[in-house]
Write a structure and sequence with these properties.
With 346 residues, this protein is mainly beta. It has helices spanning 8-19, 24-29, 135-147, 167-175, 200-204, and strands spanning 3-4, 36-40, 44-46, 50-57, 68-71, 74-75, 80-82, 87-95, 98-99, 103-108, 121-127, 151-157, 180-181, 183-186, 190-191, 213-222, 225-234, 239-248, 251-256, 268-274, 277-281, 288-291, 295-303, 314-322, 328-335. α1 (8-19) packs across α4 (167-175).
C-alpha cells in the first residue's frame, strides 16, 4: 500500500512561490560570463541539409543573437547554414572577447539506410528513506540490474526527513502526476506494478531489440564547472525532447522497512546504499526540443549543485522522449570523464 503524500501540494506551492521571486533573466544578469559554448542541431548530415547553431554562456543563457558564428573561419549571417558541398567543416563562435569550443561537421552525399541503435529502458523510482514500503521497489531495482544491463534507474526521493530530497525531484513528481510512494515509472508512461520486486519482468519486457534513436554522453568537470555533451542519432525523422539528469551513486542512510521478507526483515535497515539518486535536472524539466538529423549535438554548461556529496560518484542520465506522448524512446547513462559513441547496430 502506498503512503499518500499529504504535504506534497503545500510544499510544492511554497517552493513555486519562493522560486518565482526572481526571473531567470534577472538571475543571469547578476552572473558574469566567463566562457561560451557552441552547439549544433546536427554534426553529420547529407548535402542540402541545414544546421542550426546555438551559443550559450557558462551559466546557460542563450546569447546566440549577440554572437558571431564562423564556418572554416568565414563568418555567416544568422545562426543557420545550408551545406551545399561534401566535406569536413570546423565551426566556432565568438562573443565579445570570448571564443567558443570548435565543432566538427561532416557533410556526405545523399543518405542511404541509417543504422538503428541499442535500446535501453528507463525506470524512475519515487521513494523515501522514511517509507517502509519503499524497499519493495528498491529491491526490485536490484533484481532488475542483476538480470539485464539494458536498464537505467533513477531514484527520486520525496518528503519526510529524507536527506536526499531535491527541489528538482519535487517538481518532477508534480509534472509526472506522482502522488504517493513507492511509485515506479517505466519509460515515463507505464506504471511499474507493485510489489515491484515481484514484477521485474514487466520492466524487462519493455527493452526492445533496437531503437530508432541513440545517445552518447561525454561529460567533463573542471573545478566546479560541469560540461555535458549529448550526441543523438536518428534512424528516422521524429519529434523528440531531450531530458538530462545529474545523479549520484553510493549514498548511505537508514531505510525504513515494513517487509518481513526483505533485507532480513529489519524494520530499520542501517547504512542502506542508494544509487542513481536525482540531484538536479540539467535540461528543461519537460525536455528540450530536438530537431532530428542523422547526428545531433546538444551541450549543457552549469555549475555543480551544492547537494553533491562526492564528485567521484556523479553520473549523467540522458534520454529522448516522443514529443507527442512523452514515452521514452531510448536512454543512456555515463560517468564523468567517460567517452561514449553512439551504439549503432550492424
Amino acid at each position: 500500500m502506498k503512503k499518500t503524500i499529504i504535504q506534497f501540494s503545500g510544499v510544492l506551492i511554497f517552493m513555486l512561490l519562493f522560486s518565482c521571486t526572481k526571473t531567470e533573466d534577472e538571475v543571469n544578469q547578476q552572473q558574469e560570463i566567463t566562457s561560451i559554448v557552441l552547439s549544433s542541431s546536427q554534426t553529420n548530415l547529407a548535402v542540402g541539409n541545414s544546421v542550426t547553431f546555438t551559443v550559450n554562456s557558462n551559466f546557460g543563457s542563450n546569447i546566440t543573437d549577440e554572437s558571431e558564428i564562423f564556418i572554416d573561419d568565414q563568418p555567416i549571417l544568422g545562426n543557420s547554414y545550408t551545406f551545399t558541398q561534401t566535406g569536413n567543416y570546423s565551426i566556432r563562435a565568438s562573443y565579445l572577447n570570448f571564443q567558443s569550443n570548435t565543432i566538427s561537421i561532416t557533410v556526405n552525399e545523399e543518405s542511404t539506410a541509417l543504422s538503428q541503435f541499442v535500446n535501453r529502458v528507463l525506470v524512475e523510482e519515487y521513494s523515501g528513506t522514511w517509507c517502509g514500503n519503499c524497499p519493495r521497489i528498491l529491491y526490485g531495482t536490484e533484481l532488475l540490474k542483476e538480470q539485464t544491463d539494458k536498464a537505467v534507474s533513477v531514484q527520486i526521493h520525496l518528503l519526510g526527513s529524507d536527506p536526499f530530497i531535491s527541489p528538482s525531484g519535487n517538481s518532477l513528481a508534480s509534472s509526472q502526476g506522482v502522488s504517493g510512494v513507492p511509485t515506479g515509472k517505466i519509460n515515463r508512461t507505464i506504471n511499474w506494478s507493485g510489489p515491484q520486486y515481484q514484477n521485474v519482468s514487466q520492466v524487462i519486457n519493455e527493452i526492445k531489440p533496437s531503437s530508432q534513436v541513440g545517445l552518447a554522453i561525454n561529460a567533463s568537470l573542471v573545478s566546479n564547472a560541469l560540461t555535458v555533451e549529448v550526441k543523438m542519432g536518428f534512424a528516422e525523422t521524429l519529434n523528440t525532447k531531450l531530458v538530462v539528469y545529474l545523479v549520484e551513486d553510493n549514498l548511505f542512510h537508514t531505510q525504513a522497512n515494513y517487509s518481513s521478507n526483505l533485507y532480513g526483515g529489519l524494520s530499520s535497515i542501517p547504512n542502506f546504499k542508494y544509487d542513481g539518486v536525482l540531484r538536479s535536472v540539467v535540461s528543461n524539466i519537460s525536455g528540450d526540443v530536438i530537431v532530428a538529423g542523422e547526428e545531433v549535438q546538444k551541450i549543457y554548461s552549469l555549475n555543480l549543485p551544492s547537494n553533491i556529496n562526492n564528485t567521484n560518484n556523479i553520473k549523467i542520465v540522458a534520454f529522448l522522449t516522443n514529443a507527442s506522448n512523452g514515452n521514452v524512446l531510448n536512454v543512456r547513462e555515463s560517468e564523468i570523464g567517460q567517452s561514449q559513441e553512439l551504439e549503432k547496430l550492424d
